[in-house]
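Duplicate of #3305? Posting structure anyway:
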C-alpha cells in the first residue's frame, strides 16, 4: 500500500508480481518462496516511480495469466482456491454488496433477497461479524463503521501483515523498505 498511496519505494509482492518474477527468474523451479523474490524485487524496484513500476508488473503478471501461464503454482505458498460459484465466499460477498447498496437489513429479508438458505446466511454472517465487517443488532445486520487509522508504518524486516513472509497465502502482500531503507532515494 505504501508504494501506491504514498509513492514509497517499498518491496511489494502480490499475486501478479509474484507470477512475473517467478516466470522471469525461476522458470523451472518449484517451491519458490517469497523470501527468494524479495531481493530481486528490491534490486529491480523503480525508486522514483514505484507506483508505475508495480502497475506495470501487475499488468504483466495478469497478461501471463490470461495467456494461460500460472507460475504461481510453483510458489511455495500456492494453494488453489475452491470454486467461487455457490461458495460461502460468494454468499459473504453478496451480503456485503447488499448492505452497501441497501443499508441495514433483517436477516430474514437478506435470506429472501439473496435466495440463500437461512443456515448458510447465518454462518456467513457469523464469519463476517467475527472478522469485523458487519454488526448484528437483534435481527438487523449493518456494515461496521471503519475506524480512522494513522498511516501504516512498516519497519525493515517486517511485512504489512506482521513479521516475515510465511503467511502461506498466495495473495499475501509483502512490503519491505527497498535496499537503502525507506525514504532513501539516492
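Output from current build:
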Amino acid at each position: 500500500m505504501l508504494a501506491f498511496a504514498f509513492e514509497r519505494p517499498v518491496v511489494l509482492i502480490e499475486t501478479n508480481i509474484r507470477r512475473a518474477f517467478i516466470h522471469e527468474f525461476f522458470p523451472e523451479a518449484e517451491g519458490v518462496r517469497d523470501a527468494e523474490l524479495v531481493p530481486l524485487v528490491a534490486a529491480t524496484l523503480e525508486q522514483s516511480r514505484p507506483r508505475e513500476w508495480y502497475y506495470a508488473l501487475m499488468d504483466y503478471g495478469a497478461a501471463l495469466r490470461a495467456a494461460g501461464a500460472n507460475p504461481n503454482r510453483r510458489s511455495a505458498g500456492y494453494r488453489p482456491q475452491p470454486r467461487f460459484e455457490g461458495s460461502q465466499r460468494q454468499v459473504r460477498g453478496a451480503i456485503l454488496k447488499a448492505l452497501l447498496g441497501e443499508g441495514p437489513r433483517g436477516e430474514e429479508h437478506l435470506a429472501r433477497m439473496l435466495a440463500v438458505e437461512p443456515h448458510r446466511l447465518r454462518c456467513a454472517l457469523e464469519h463476517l461479524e467475527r472478522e469485523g465487517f458487519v454488526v448484528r443488532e437483534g435481527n438487523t445486520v449493518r456494515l461496521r463503521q471503519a475506524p480512522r487509522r494513522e498511516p501504516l508504518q512498516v519497519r525493515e524486516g517486517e511485512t504489512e501483515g506482521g513479521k516475515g513472509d510465511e503467511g502461506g497465502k498466495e495473495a499475501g502482500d509483502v512490503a519491505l523498505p527497498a535496499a537503502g531503507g525507506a525514504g532513501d532515494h539516492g
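Confirmed duplicate; merging threads. The mean pLDDT is 82. The two ends are 22 Å apart (CA to CA).
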